[in-house]
Amino acid sequence: WSCVEDVSFIDNHIAGTLRGWAISGNDGGFPSAGGRRILIKNNYVSVLGGPAWGEGQSPAWEASCVFLMTGGMDDVQVDHLTAIHAADMSFPGAFMLADGAPYQRFKLTNSIWENNAYGIKGAGTTQGNLTLAVWFPGAEVRRNLMIGAPALYPADNPLPAAPAAVGFVNFPTDVRLAPSSPYAGTATDGTNPGAADSLLGGG
């Protein structure tokens, strides 16, 4: 049997990929004790999706997403993440897709991402609050900038209509928040939402 727990993924830049993380609470049909306590903090995902990374290509026709969540897991925390899709992305993508079993005590805070077609969506549920209620019961989802998302998410998450409304320094090559951004200093810890400037500038 296997068990994955107490894992931290901190201070990384992932560039050019179909997906950022795949997090599963089981071992794909083999005996497993499940997983718990995964911390993903201060990370930057850029050039996510697009045909160069297999998105929308035959025969699989896979869509990009930052998180692929399957099988359920306890105490997953995502904090201060910035995720930007590839400019040539043309296939419906998502931020987070969930299936298999619920994720208990899930936290998603102080992050910035492009919602694209599906945002946070579970199998058999529409994106947003319904998916959170079914697949992430009791989740703490706060102070995230969900770019282009519909009004289907918890109230403490701004929904800027487009990247231009966020106040980036120079989107998409420099996705630090400018001092004049209306969202500067609005994270729960008083800093900017998203990854730290040291990861973002000119990337």
Word description of this protein:
The longest helix is centred in the middle third of the chain and has 7 residues, at 129-135. The chain starts with a strand and ends with a helix. The chain has 203 residues and is mostly beta strands. It contains 2 helices and 13 strands; from the N terminus they run E-E-E-E-E-E-E-E-E-H-E-E-E-E-H.
Task: Identify the notable features of this structure and list them briefly.
5% helix; 2 helices; 203 residues; seven-stranded parallel β-sheet; mainly beta; four-stranded parallel β-sheet
Largest sheet: 7 strands, parallel
Low-confidence stretches: none
DSSP summary, beta strand count: 13
Arithmetic mean pLDDT: 89
Helix-residue proportion: under 10%
Number of helices: 2
Order of helices and strands: EEEEEEEEEHEEEEH
Shape: globular
End-to-end Cα distance: 40 Å
- Structural class based on helices, strands and sheet pairing: mainly beta
Radius of gyration, in angstroms, nearest whole number: 16 Å
Strand content: 35-45%
